[in-house]
Amino acid sequence: MSGTLHELRPKSGGETEKITVNLGYVDLGHIDLLVQDGFYSNRTDFIRTAIRNQIERHAEAAKRSVERKSLDLGLRHYTREDLEAARAAGQVLDIRVLGLATIAADVSPELARAAIGSVSVLGALQASAAVKAALADRTR
To answer: Its domain of life (predicted)?
Structure first.
């Protein structure tokens, strides 16, 4: 398979996923105070820093979990050629990624169902809506 694995730590806006976080007013006020006093450039900078600090704090446990669950770490891209090769070899892929998994835009829903047995992505899965729908019963 020609799928490439990359270590990934997003830096630019195009490589990030937007999430929504609900915070209490007092917590939000504390963040604004720290931003106002120059500790962080904005709310997003504070939140990203806090998340990275927690990830670092639990790095060993996360590493063991990644190994135990046999997760690919980072970016994993599946091309039409990858899936056709798996199907031709009689293999069914189990996609397990911590980070970003992408399935090429030219992959048909039929090919995805024939070549992919399960999908478990901790992070984000990027694929066409039709491919996501075709794999919905195989996605955890």
So the answer is: Bacteria
Position 73 pLDDT exceeds 70: yes
End-to-end CA distance of the chain: 23
CB 106 within 8 Å of CB 80 = yes
Strand, helix or coil at 34? helix
φ, ψ for residue 105 (rounded to 5)?
-65, -25
Distance CA 63, CA 87 (A): 31
**Residues ≥6 apart with Cβ < 8 Å to 28:** 43
**What is the C-alpha separation between 105 and 126, in angstroms, rounded?**
9
User: What gap in Å lies between CA 85 and CA 96, rounded to an integer?
Assistant: 18
Residues 42, 40: Cα–Cα separation, whole Å: 6
